[in-house]
Amino acid sequence: MANLQPEYDRASELKAFDETKAGVKGLVDAGIKHVPRMFNRPPYELEKNSSVSVGGNGIHASVPVIDLEGTKEDPGARREIVEKVRNASESWGFFQVVNHGIPVSVLEDMKDGVVSFFEQDLEFKKKFYTRDSTKKVIYSSNFHLYSSPAADWKDTLFCCMAPDPPLPEELPEVSRDVIMEYTKHVRQFCCLLFELLSEALGLQPDHLRDMDCAESLIILSHYYPACPQPELTLGITKHSDSDFLTVILQDHISGLQVLHQNQWVDITPIPGALVVNIGDLLQLISNDVFKSVEHRVVSRSVGPRASVACFLGTVHQPNTRTYGPIKQLLSEKSPPKYREVTIREYVSYFNSKGLDGKSALPHFKL
């Protein structure tokens, strides 16, 4: 008997989805009961092991939580905090921070601002919808829509906030004020983070900042609608970040996981906390001392889930500065592992290969 099933035309499905400019939220608003095929992932990518027992000793793995209280006033406390930052950056590549100095009201307003943007009428969002990566403000669903094997169950608002921010009127009106306020606080906080990371590498506090690691700031606000079949897809596929450092604000709905000792571990939301993770470029310049590890977001049947990821050092404008392993960290026993590279070259390669679950770092090894 002849196969009467029509041949799957993925390209047409992607194009039709893109042209609605309504994103994943548009699918949910339309009342779909089944995840479209373009989002489906093979079962091996969807294993959801978490709360892992490490070493068979019954102790559950959890991402380190670091209290920054006293960092600026107490030299003794600062030394202890630097040591915790070093351990977490070497062994996990991720840590959560509390008492970071950003008011809880600002965090809550930022999360509310994300939801407000995505839940406004589509006509207001459409004017920001584009795949032109040179724009400073971009609303889209899946920057890698046409290059990755499967689409992610999320929509995103991209804002390039430094070093050359958009004019206030270029930002969405519904979340304009809080984006600008959050940017101000995050930039101050990241200056402190880069001091602690510099000291954790045995360098002067201003070393990483003087390398312009904190010069560029891109804010990605993610909106994950409730998924009717979360067992079939992911919110964000497995990847590492292409920047120096990422700071993540997540709401109360869990979903973010980090790959630790080959097991997926939940990063449990803590009220008022921020998640910090090492990016590829910081692993490169630290000559593999700090680790940029793979992470993902699993889909949930509840939602929407909102998160805000701030990327430090993913330059949006041309920059001829090259980055390689920091000279002070090299020796005969620790020769350089990577070649010199511009941020633009690194990010271009990272973006061209899409989120395929493989690190871009080996491409730049000596």
UniProtKB/TrEMBL annotation:
Residues 213-314 form the Fe2OG dioxygenase domain. InterPro entries: DIOX_N, IPNS-like_FE2OG_OXY, IPNS-like_sf, Oxoglu/Fe-dep_dioxygenase_dom. It comes from the Eukaryota. Its cofactor is Fe cation. GO terms for molecular function: dioxygenase activity; metal ion binding. Coiled coil: none annotated. Keywords: Iron, Metal-binding, Oxidoreductase. Belongs to the iron/ascorbate-dependent oxidoreductase family. This is 1-aminocyclopropane-1-carboxylate oxidase-like protein 11. It comes from Hibiscus syriacus.
